[in-house]
Amino acid sequence: MEARWWWAAIFSVPLLGALIALDPWELSPIAGYPNFSAAPIEMRPFHLNRQFPRDRHNKLQQSQILFSREVHGPESLAFDALGRGPYTGVSDGRILRWDGPDLGWTEFATIYPNGSEHCKPQTPPAPNIAHEHECGRPLGIQFMKSTGELYIADAYFGLLVVGPEGGQAKPLVNEAEGSSFAFTNDLVINKEGLIYFTVSSDLYPRSRFLLTAFAGDQSGRVLSYDPVTRDVKVLCRGLLTPNGITISKDGSFLVFSETGRCRLNRLWLKGDKAGFMETFAELPGYPDNVRVNSKGQFWVAIYCRQSLSSWILLRFSWIRRVLVQLPLTFKQLNSIFLGSHPHALAMLFDQDGKILEVLEDQTGKTVKFISEIEERDGQLWMGSVLMPHIAVYSKS
């Protein structure tokens, strides 16, 4: 009897390995991506994360939670020239506007064609991941001050625009240099009306965003779009998940997140360094959107601190390759990658990339998974691509 169990074990191990490798029932996260490969990623030593300051008082726990269950996944926030808002894109593919306690949230714009059955909004709003590619997933948003138009970076449909009165968003661009955008992420508009935006990946859509990290995907790009000439230019390429983007107060440089490398980059637009990219600031975690305040300082929302498990995964490509071949859900894969409990981290930098302030909720008691920080009238408005609310922290 023992001999039979021994031989069964000997034959079952390679059989199990073959089933995992071949994935005949397409149960792995890379099902549908036969060309997936895991590239090496150069990582700084993990112990250097200890050098970053902490908020020992967990100040973000004093934040106020607004609009609970009224919005879902409000990643980016904007206010128009009349002070109305916030406006935000939510997970069912709409742009909503807060019109006060009497009217509440009203639909301002849609990405998808009117009447699409799969894109009917739910009450309360809920994710629609299975149909995101049809309904859209608006991420970064910003108003063009001169026209009142709202420009939208949609994960699936690229760069879009909608007029001051809202309605159906008009697509502008979804490819450059013969390569379509798989995952458009964020945008910023300069004083002259030129739009800068990020494409996190040309290979993997937002619904498979973890594959950009596990693949070491460096197809990310930073681009510009001129609404007058309709010219699209690629400014930077070969980036590991470029994400949030903003422009300095004087318009001389861009600052954008390179999420996969836990850093902010600076791209010079003017002066002797025009066209040159450099590291602006190293970060203790994975940055999402970055926004400039009225003083010309930069707020960066950090999705989570880098854990030892995520560092190991990024450092060793063979481990990433093995994991994505297992029959794991993306939720399980994300939990393995994060390797820590949900929390919130916000950092403020000056124009030289020096840390000015750190705000945290280390336990996630009140705030977690923040995606953007918009400073307005002494308050920090914080969006989240995952949470069903907006958080507001008063600095005074």
Look at the structure and give the mean pLDDT: 92
Structural class: alpha+beta
State the shape.
Answer: globular
CATH architecture classification name:
6 Propeller
Characterize the biggest β-sheet.
5 strands, mixed
Number of strands: 27
Using only CA atoms, what is the Rg?
A: 22 Å
The CATH homology group name:
TolB, C-terminal domain
> Beta fraction of the residues?
35-45%
Kindly identify the CATH topology. Neuraminidase
User: Strands of the largest sheet, in order across it?
Assistant: 2-3-4-5-9
* Count of helical stretches: 7
Helix content: 10-25%
Query: End-to-end distance, in Å?
Result: 74 Å
Low-pLDDT segments: 11-20
Q: Just give the CATH class.
A: Mainly Beta
Q: How many separate structural domains?
A: 1
Descriptive overview:
The chain has 396 residues and is of the alpha+beta class. It has a single domain, classed as TolB, C-terminal domain (Neuraminidase). 15% of the residues lie in helices and 36% in strands. The chain has 7 helices and 27 strands. It has helices at 2-22, 100-103, 132-135, 209-215, 308-315, 317-324, 330-338; strands spanning 64-66, 77-78, 87-89, 94-98, 105-110, 138-143, 150-154, 158-162, 167-168, 170-173, 175-176, 179-180, 183-189, 195-201, 220-225, 232-239, 242-247, 253-258, 263-268, 277-282, 285-292, 298-305, 344-349, 355-361, 372-376, 379-383, 390-394. It has a 5-stranded mixed beta sheet with strand order 2-3-4-5-9. A 4-stranded antiparallel beta sheet has the order 1-27-26-25, with no helix packed on it. A hairpin with a 2-residue loop joins strand 11 and strand 12. It starts with a helix and ends with a strand. Mean pLDDT is 92; it is low at 11-20. InterPro entries: 6-blade_b-propeller_TolB-like (IPR011042), Strictosidine_synth_cons-reg (IPR018119). Belongs to the strictosidine synthase family. Residues 185-271 form the Strictosidine synthase conserved region domain. Residues 1-21 form the signal peptide. Keywords: Glycoprotein, Signal, Vacuole.
